Amino acid sequence: MLSSILFQVLLAGAAAAVPIIEQREAACTPIHIIAARGSTEAPGPGAIGSLATLIQAANPGTDLESITYPALLGKIEWRPRKIVGSMLTRTNVVPYDFSSSAGTAAVSSQLTAYVRRCPSSKVVLLGYSQGAHILLDSLCGGGGYPGLGPATQPLPTAIGDHVTAVVQYGDPRFLFGQPYDAGTNKRTNGVCPGSTTFHQAINMQSHITNTSSLYPQIFPRRLPAQSCARYASKIRSWCDVGDPFCASGFDLAAHLDYDQEYDQAALAFVNQKLAA
To answer: Each residue of 190-231: pLDDT tens digit?
Structure first.
């Protein structure tokens, strides 16, 4: 059953990729935006597309490419056990690690392909929620913990150094105290798949109940071989107090209004980096 569902997800992703592949084959532009949508958003740039639009208006000739990946939250369903007298059993129908791992690979692939084709262009990465997660997991290396998929190495610097600016909204792998942190959250880490707080956050967004803990802890941001230090000056990661995903909070509204709260500040940050 799970393999059938994953096949359907991949098939749908392949169909959605057709116009994006055509977009990637367009002429090179001075500035190229790569946007990664958040969990459950329709294919395209998603909510962070509003920031992309502002950047394009401020920098005529800038084009936009969206990451092609499942963007699934990790739906959990409860089904009756086959054993007589038992109650319910949890089935993680489409795991978050499958979606985020596919997204990380897609970011690496699409970014590498563009840089090789257009080495003189400046690249801006924009990501919201799971989209923010996969951007830095690609650039800095990610995975390697239960619920996060296999470990990946950082992108080669020959590719990563072409990135001029990175904007994240509501990154589930947010780690407070980093030089690129922004927003009102100054003391709480984000959540990761498998933690109690992650399942509570899923419940808030998808209204699923009875999801108990699989791994009751917050995982570290990176393994020793994975680091964002090289790109720290190019990154801004906005996270607000109460956000269930980036701040382990209980206010879903805090996760949904980054575009309204921070698009102008993010635009100023990106324009500053483009002008440097």
So the answer is: 886 434 444 444 444 544 333 223 323 344 456 778 889 999
Closest by alpha carbon to 203, among 107, 113, 90? 90
* Strand intervals (E) in 130-205: 163-169, 181-182
Asked if residue 260 lies in contact with residue 266, where contact means CB atoms within 8 angstroms, the answer is no
What's the burial of 248, exposed, middle or buried (CB within 10 Å: 0-12/13-18/19+)?
A: buried
* CA neighbours closer than 13 Å in the CB half-sphere of residue 255: 27
CA distance 138 to 34: 13
Measured in residues, the chain has a length of 276
pLDDT tens for each residue of 245-275: 999 899 999 999 999 999 999 999 999 999 9
Q: Is 169 helix (H, G, I), strand (E, B) or coil?
A: strand
Distance between CA atoms of residues 229 and 81, nearest Å? 48
